[in-house]
Amino acid sequence: MKKILLIFLAFVGISLGAQAQIDSGLVAKYYFNSGDANDEVGTNDGTVTGATIATDRFGNSDMAYSFDGMDDHIDFGDSSEFQMGTGDFAVSVWVHYTSTQFGAIFSKRDGGNGNYNQYYLAVLADPLFGGASKNLWSYERCSFSNSRAISGGDISGSWKHVVVVHGHLDSTIIYVDGQYVSHDTTDFGGNFNIVGRPFVLGYLSESNNAFFWGSIDDVRVYRRKLSGSEIDSLYNEANPVAVGMAENNENLSSLGIYPNPAGSTLQIHVAQPSTIVLLNMLGQELKRLNVENEAAVDVSGLDAGIYFVRDVTTGKTVKFSKQ
């Protein structure tokens, strides 16, 4: 038993170490898995206007947001976390669209009085003059300096993972599905604070146009650059309904949980009747129950943090976060 516990904790340590690295510098996270636009790492919750919960890239219902291209958007406010100054930053997002359009995926944009200082990711024909297209563009402009425009090409037709990595003193790079696509090394001056304008999904708030037609999911905002290996890790994130670790190479589908992160209730699904235990980070057993197929577990009394669901019958372990 002691050996099993040590092996289990070793897996926990590896997982937590990798998670700590990918979460370093993360200032806002919106995975929409609870059917809302709440910030999972901070307090910059989104105000949803029109956008509706939709199916994500894994086929999970109500774990993404759909935008109708008419007036739907989500506003996260003008928090200091989105005022990038002269620092590096990165934004990671999953996006799906099929139609030719002039639509902003995310943006923080000032008006003419602020020299149109901005950073955005959009589907359009030209980053300066707009127009409808299926091509993806990232555009950055700050404080009366030069601008950077990076094309991601036509990525329509299926879910795509897009990451914009902005190095203020060197270059801005765009990645699609974990692969480098393009960059711009135009010299920059000034800063990206863009005070008074919100960080939004689905449109350009300053001009109240460029409404996006498609779906958006798993948005992460960082106050640092991301490495290629970190971007690859985000691209290969597991299905949130059955995310976890296995002590062998067997299929994880026999043990599933949702939502993750969990609020007051955690749903557990097993492929065969099993004994399930709930463990804390020290491997201490908190709950034990027998599950025939699916069960709802009350986790409202748990403190916020990381926990594990272990199938005693198969030996599989799944990690989840308690909000």
Give me a quick take on this structure:
By secondary structure, this protein is mainly beta. The protein is built from two helices and 22 strands.
Helix and strand element order? HEEEEEEEEEEEEEEEHEEEEEEE
Question: In angstroms, what separates the terminal alpha carbons?
Answer: 30 Å
Using the alpha-carbon principal axes, give the shape. Answer: elongated
The residue-averaged pLDDT reads: 87
The number of distinct helices, counting runs of at least 4 residues, comes to 2
Low-confidence stretches: 243-252
- Largest sheet entry: 8 strands, antiparallel
Query: What does the radius of gyration come to?
Result: 21 Å
Share of helix, binned: under 10%
Structure description:
There is one protein chain. This protein has 323 residues and is mainly β. It is 9% helix and 39% strand. The protein is built from two helices and 22 strands. The strands form four sheets. Strands 1, 3, 4, 6, 11, 12, 13 and 15 form an eight-stranded antiparallel beta sheet that branches. A seven-stranded antiparallel beta sheet has the order 2-5-14-7-8-9-10, with no helix packed on it. Strands 19-18-21-22 form a four-stranded antiparallel beta sheet, with no helix packed on it. Strand 18 and strand 19 form a beta hairpin. The protein is elongated and about 65 Å long. About 3% of the residues have low confidence.
